[in-house]
Every structure is written in structure tokens, then in C-alpha cells.
Amino acid sequence: MVQLNFNANQYEPSTGAADVLETGVYSVQIVASEVKQTKSGNGYMLVLTLSCLDQHVSGRKLTARLNIHNPNPQAVEIAYRELSAISHVVGVLNWQDSQQLHGRPFKVSVEKEERNDKPGSFSNSIKAY
After folding, report:
1. C-alpha to C-alpha distance for 126 and 103, rounded to whole angstroms
2. Res. 50: pLDDT tops 70
3. Residues facing residue 36 across a β-bridge
């Protein structure tokens, strides 16, 4: 037996996924970017790693996956529109290297969503920049 003077009211309950943020608006900056092949192998995505700047979630990571090369033209259109939004909010409209977007603070609207592939588990989706 372990004796512990514990009051659960003093702590936010764990959701089982320490890296999943609650729905809300967060200050972030891009800290990494890379191009990766899609799971299907028929396209490429620009993967941006965003680090939270807000004190209560400082350092927590979000990922933006943008389908920059895909057989589905609508997926590519969505990706380039999101990339345009990111470029506008960081103030770099013409760039040649994704590193030019790094380290510039901006806000994102994030939604906590239940995963389709893993009921009871959650992930984050960036809804707006």
C-alpha cells in the first residue's frame, strides 16, 4: 500500500493522450519542415511541425500535412490554399525554401477529434491559420 495525500481536484484529468491539445486557439511557430511520401506512395506532402508558444502548453507539437503532389487535384488545391494562409500569417508571401517560414509566431485554431481508426483515441486537426 502507498500512502499519498492526493487531491484530484488539483490536477486536470489525463485524457490518455498527453500530446493531444484541447479544442482552442494556440500561438505557434514552425520549427521543422520536410517533404514525405504519402502512405499510398502516389504523392508527396509537406509536413510542418508546429511548436506551441502559449505558457500552459509550451513546446507541445502539432503537425500540418499538406498534399503538395497528389493524383487528386482537390487535395493539392486544399494544400496550396492552406500553404497560402500560412505564408500570409507569417508575413512571407514569396519564398523558395520552407525554412523561411520557421520561427515566425502565428495562431492556429485546433480541434480535438476522435480518431476513426482508433475509437476512444484522439488527435488534433488544424482548422484555421
Report:
1. 18
2. yes
3. 45
Q: What are phi and psi of 37, to 5 degrees?
A: -75, 145
What the block records as the C-alpha cell of 99 is 525554412
pTM listed for this prediction: 0.82
pLDDT in tens, 51-64: 999 999 999 999 99
Concatenated DSSP letters of the chain = -------GGGSPPP-S-TTPPPSEEEEEEEEEEEEEE-TTSS-EEEEEEEEE-SGGGTT-EEEEEEEEE-S-HHHHHHHHHHHHHHHHHHT--S-SSGGGGBT--EEEEEEEEE-SSSTT-EEEEEEE-
Asked whether the CA dihedral 44, 82, 26, 53 is positive or negative, the reply is positive
